[in-house]
Structures are given as C-alpha cells and as structure tokens.
Structure of L-ribulose-5-phosphate 4-epimerase:
Amino acid sequence: MLEDLKEEVFQANLELPERGLIKYTWGNVSAFDKASQCFVIKPSGVGYAEMKASDMVVVDLDNHVVEGDLNPSSDTPTHAVLYKNFPEIGGIVHTHSTWATIWAQAGLDVPAMGTTHADTFFGSVPCARVLTQDEIDAGYEHETGNVIVETFRERGINPADVPGVLLHGHGPFTWGKDASSAVMNAVVLDEVCKMNYYTRQLNSYAEELPKRVLDKHYLRKHGKNAYYGQGK
Amino acid sequence: MLEDLKEEVFQANLELPERGLIKYTWGNVSAFDKASQCFVIKPSGVGYAEMKASDMVVVDLDNHVVEGDLNPSSDTPTHAVLYKNFPEIGGIVHTHSTWATIWAQAGLDVPAMGTTHADTFFGSVPCARVLTQDEIDAGYEHETGNVIVETFRERGINPADVPGVLLHGHGPFTWGKDASSAVMNAVVLDEVCKMNYYTRQLNSYAEELPKRVLDKHYLRKHGKNAYYGQGK
Amino acid sequence: MLEDLKEEVFQANLELPERGLIKYTWGNVSAFDKASQCFVIKPSGVGYAEMKASDMVVVDLDNHVVEGDLNPSSDTPTHAVLYKNFPEIGGIVHTHSTWATIWAQAGLDVPAMGTTHADTFFGSVPCARVLTQDEIDAGYEHETGNVIVETFRERGINPADVPGVLLHGHGPFTWGKDASSAVMNAVVLDEVCKMNYYTRQLNSYAEELPKRVLDKHYLRKHGKNAYYGQGK
Amino acid sequence: MLEDLKEEVFQANLELPERGLIKYTWGNVSAFDKASQCFVIKPSGVGYAEMKASDMVVVDLDNHVVEGDLNPSSDTPTHAVLYKNFPEIGGIVHTHSTWATIWAQAGLDVPAMGTTHADTFFGSVPCARVLTQDEIDAGYEHETGNVIVETFRERGINPADVPGVLLHGHGPFTWGKDASSAVMNAVVLDEVCKMNYYTRQLNSYAEELPKRVLDKHYLRKHGKNAYYGQGK
C-alpha cells in the first residue's frame, strides 16, 4: 500500500544527507496519507546507503505498524502526535542538523533577523521545554509530541505559519504540506540559525527584522496575495 | 531574441549553487543588452535542476516582459532600477549568501580589512537602509532599487568602484561588466564578509587596510595602469 | 594473516578523509584480534591514495611487528596500551579532527550539552593532562596510552560508556567494538565539540543536558533495554 | 626547458582549489631549479580550468622571463627574493586561504597551540609588517619579499624550521623543499589558524603548547632523529 508515498518519503530521507542536514542515521522523514489516516516513515537505524523505498514503514495514528518488515523510527510516536494535532500538515522531518541543534542546546527561540527567515517562518521559531521525569517515564517520544503541541497552543502560534520547532537540548522538527517541503523547511531553519547566530555575534545590538518587512516577505510567498513563483 | 545572452545568464545562474552562494532558488542573475535596452533574467521560483536557457525571461526597463513564457524573478524591478541608474553595468546578481547576509542582518557596512577586499572593492561596501512602510506599499522591489541608488548617490560612491551593496535585513546585490563578473563579485563579497567578521573577533583592535595598500591593490588590477593578468 | 581484519582496518582508514576527519595522513585506525592478541594498524606516513589493504601492519601487544613490510603508525604504542587496559574494545581511531582538536588545545572536558552527545557518550568526554618531561623521555607514545588509562581510572569512567578522550594540546582518540564504530565515535565527538562550542558562545548560561534526558537517550540506544534500531 | 618542473608546478597549482585554499585565481605556486637558477611559476590571472602545464612561465632570479608566452604571476618578484635569500627552499605558495588571511588581517603571529602546529612549524608563524609608502613606490612585490626576509632575520627564525609567514593585511606565503610540500605547509597553516582561533575563543586562558611537547612533535618528524614515516 501507499507505494507512491513510500517512494516520496524514501527520496525525502535521502535528501537529508545530500543537503548536509545529517550524519549517519540521525534523522527521519515521514509523510501522511489523509485517505487511510496512516503515515509512511523511515525504519529505525537503517543506513542511507542500503535503504530501499520498500523498507519504509506504514504506521497508523496509534503507532501500530500497518505494513512493513522493519521497526519504524524510534521517533514515530512524536510524528503521530503532530499529525493528529496539526491536521494541515502532510510531512514531518526530524534532524540533528548542526545549527538548529546549537540553538536547541542553547534553549533559545530563533528570532526573525532577516528576510531569509521571513520567506518561510512568519515570526520566531519557538524552543519547546525539556520534558519532566514523569513525561519521560510515561513515554518519551509521545510526550515530546505533546510538548510541541503545548508550545504552539500556549503561545498562540499557527503551525502552518511557523512550520518548525526546537526541542531544548535535542534538535529541530520541521513540517510542511508534504515530505519535500518539510525538508526544505529544515534546510531554511538550519541556515537561519547559522545566520542569526553570527548576526548577533557581529553586532549585539542588531534588531529583529521590522514587522513591516516580515509581513511583506512572508506574504509575497504565502497566502492568497502571494506573487512569488509561477503561480498555480 | 538575445539567445546568446540567455545562455550566458543561464550559465551564470547555475554558478550560484555551484559556488555555494545559494540554496534552492534563493538568488537570481540578469544581464543587460545595450542595443535593445532590455535585460535577461531568471524566471521566478524555478528550480536549478529543471531550468533551461530558454526559460530565461527578456524584460524591458519598465518591467514589461518582452519575451518568455514564465514570470520573471520577483526581484526584477530592482534590477531594472539599477540598469537605468548605473549605466556602466552589464550584469546583476542577488543572493542570500551566508556571510553577506549576516552583515546585512547586522546592518553594517563591510570595511576593507585586507587585500582580498581591495582587489575588487575600492573601499567599504555600504549597507543600505530598511525601506519605510510607504516605500513597501509603493512597490517593494522597485523602491529597493531606489534605496540602493540613493545610498551610492548620498555617499558619493561610484558603483563601478564598489560593485555591490548590502540591503539591511535582507542580503547582497552585486554587479559587474557582465553576468559572470557580477557572480565573481558576489563570491568575493561573501568571502570578505567571512574574513572580516573573524578578523574583528580575533582582534577587536584590528584596523582597516591602510589607504596606500588599498590603492595599490585596487589599481594594480583596475584602471589604466593595471598590470595584473594577461591584459593588453 | 588476519586478511579480513586488514581489509576492515583499511576501509576504516579510508573513512577518515571521506568523513572530513583528517587531511593528508593525520590519523590512524587499528582493530584488535582477540584470538591472536594482535592488532592491525595503518602504516606510518603513507598517503591514503596509494595505500592498499595489504600495507596494513600486524603488531602484538608489546609493539613487535608480526607481519608487514612497512613501519606501523608512530602512535602504535598508544594503541597497544589501550587494547591491554580496555579489554572490551575492538577498534581505535586517532585523528586531528578540527573541533575535537580545538577542545583538546583548550584543555577542556567536553560536557554533554545535548542528545547528540548522549546518544553516544554517557557523560563528559575527559581531557587528559599533558605528559611530563620524564614521561616524554621514557617513551612518548607509550606514556600517552598510560595517561589515558590513568584519566579513566582516576575519574572512575568506564571506557565502554565514554568511548573517547582528548589529549591536552594534541587531539582525540576514540574507540568502539570494532574499527567502524570507533570511526563513528570519532565523527560524533567532532560534531558535539562543534555544537557544544557554539552553544556556549550563543548562550553562556546554557546548562548541561539534565541527567534524566542523558539517561533516557543513552539507554534507549545502549544496554539491555535499548529499543533503537532493528534489534538483534 | 624544465618540462618536468613545469608539470610539477602545474599540478601543485591545481591542488590549491582542490584543497579549498583558493577561489578563482587567488594564488600561485612556483618551484626552483638549482642547476639553471631559474624558477617556474603560474601565469598571471589565468583560470585553473583552462590552464595547461605548458603555460607555466620560466623566470630567472632577476625576474626576466626566460621561457613562456604568458605574463608570470604578478607576485613573481616576491618569489624571486625568497629564492635568493632562503637558499634551502625549492617551492613557494601564495594564497588568500580563509583562516591564514584572517590572522594576517588581524596582524597577529600564529602561536603554537597544539601538536598539529608543532608537526610542521617549529614555533610561532610570524606576521610581517605592512609596507611603507616608499616601499610600495619602489616596487610593491619585490619589497614584499624583502619585508619577509627582514622579519626572519630580525627575529632570528630559520625559514627551514618555520616554513611560512603572514603578510599583515594580505595573506600567507609558505615554502618547502618542493612545490608539493609548500602546498602541504599552506594547508597546515590554514588549519592551525582555524584551530588556534577557536581555541582562544573557547578558552581565553588556553596556553601555548609546552616547549617539551613542541620539541618532541617537531623532532619526531624532522631532523636526524626523526622516526615518523617510512624512513629514507
């Protein structure tokens, strides 16, 4: 089942090392199928060189393997929580990409310092809190998903406008309309983490991008008045 | 029309990812044809892998598409303003290259700290101000061009001597006698932004290159007494 | 003798430049054979382009060459001391990889700032002291091994839990169950040195990963309750 | 004439972009022939893609072109002064490699912070002063050579022990017994500039490598008691 989606998820996983987002098997991509309410995800700990499209695992929203011979990514329960709570998203990426992980380890939100950020993220990318011992005991990966959802709800952020999050002490999750756009958002997040780090080191008085420019750049690419690209 | 220039602009666009200046479609190159008073520019949001020379768009100085099936780059009006006001230039490049964007986000001019800078830029590369709300409303990309022109006029900088600018909060534009030299100037600008950042971090007392060395290096490569290369 | 192990050590040595851990011949990998109590190691100062599997040198735990026409790595005595004292390890890697060397030159232990660290190292990676003049005179490479062993004994660190060390002023050694996992640990150590450097620069108040998360991440990949990967 | 040396110099020039030391044509390599007292050097401003071994230019120690259709590198007079004054050297490299240039722009000597440095440079790499206006007028490239020689003489540094220098505000020159070892020394210098920068940023109290370790590492690779590598 879902052979096309498996191929898509497989290709998106291969993009992670190609674009320098991961080393070894430190990442995973999934994509959601609305019709079956299942998602396709990378198997756990399988090397990218030997991995095939048919190794992708089909999982339902309760984390049951529906099809596949291999164990799905150990982060599967986090993906499931996000698909359940953010119904507008079709693909999810987790990496330990260097710069996003640095901000995650520093425990800081990533402010919008420039238009590279504004073209993709409509405001700061939040850093979610560390899990408590009780949450870790209750199910680390599932509760990680809950803490992400809590972060967006409490701060009133629309996950469609800010398609990514940092997990304090861990690394980034990004999402998008499909697997490929979730990968692109992972690339952008890593790059703006790099740029924003150096901007603040270069000029500690550097200010966030004015709201008028944030709006202009985000809205010329997203929403009903967007005019970037070749239209529909 | 302008088939040779289309090929040249196409090749110069391909150089952007090859030289590590851009990710995805975050950049554009154009070149100007004096005879027709038109320029050739990359189409908007088209991936580099699928792009062909015949996809390049021919545009006049009033931003009308003269030939081409695709929308031109959303930054087209900025290019048009520069070709109108800086008649000595034949090619323009816009990127979000990492180091130039860092200085742009910091809102700082790039001082000449060494001969790598002096070989290409005859003094500091200026950082142009953020647009006002009125300017954004009047036409963001067109007014971006006007702010660049204003910056060079007000500061009395000759755009032939300093072939590039930073846009505060955004990124660099560079130019040159043709598309290929504009790309080279984009590479140099990014590299000197990197070097100059680290120079100041390493030694906060580091001073700008003495004027006598700036003159020597710039003038041994440019102008009527240049002796670098195989020239005539 | 040990033709399979020679091939394995040869391939693991080739991984060092491929993964960006070394330039020229600045590194070496060995692997241990329990049956013969010998180890196979890279020859000294031989370039990676011209090196063949048959050039690998077989050495016993007293540093005698058992088979091979070339001189073994000048660091051979350090490897021998580690195999003698850390009987659980099957492979050793030495490099001058950029980021691990930076921490070694700074003379600092590498704290666990994130889960990338916790997935591989169960706590800080220690930095071993500089050798005394007497130790250098007694046999620099042999005494280097002794100082590593002393560091783990005095601090009560299990080398199976923390498979690596920094040598103050020099660079890293890592180890693992075999040559290939020792290389992986060298990659991880370099990456966490990079991430942890920038984390502290970005936020000087950033704290080490809470023990509960360190435990969770290390133990979901290692030990009898591990559930990462495809199991046995 | 000197066809073998031309091939050697050509190959060494190609190594500069391959090893990430230069962009475009920002570097040059030469090698000296004792018999003819001439040296072979890269032509000025010729791109690496179109360059051939036969384009290399033969020049004597008074900067006269002895053979070749192209102009030699504009830095030729600097090379000539070094060959005249440092008779033990057989190859010279000039680049604007990023990290060595950063230290040159900062105007600082590069201290020996670790064994990566000590394996190649027997002490600090000096930063030579900026030329005066009179020196620039008298012949910039020739006087650059004189300032390098002055730096080594005044400080009592043997150019065979410390095969490189930084030019304040400009970049590095390195040398060696031949073109290929001069390139290797350029790679090492760039890497130690990078490592030493980050070492000091990470730990501002980090000290230089103790003399006993500097001696040990330098002398195990150089001089009559060297035991690194496969001997003679």
Summary: The first strand of chain A starts at residue 27 and ends at 33. Chain A has a mean pLDDT of 96. Chain A is about 40% helix and 15% strand. Helices of chain A lie at 3-18, 76-85, 98-106, 115-118, 133-155, 179-202, 211-221.
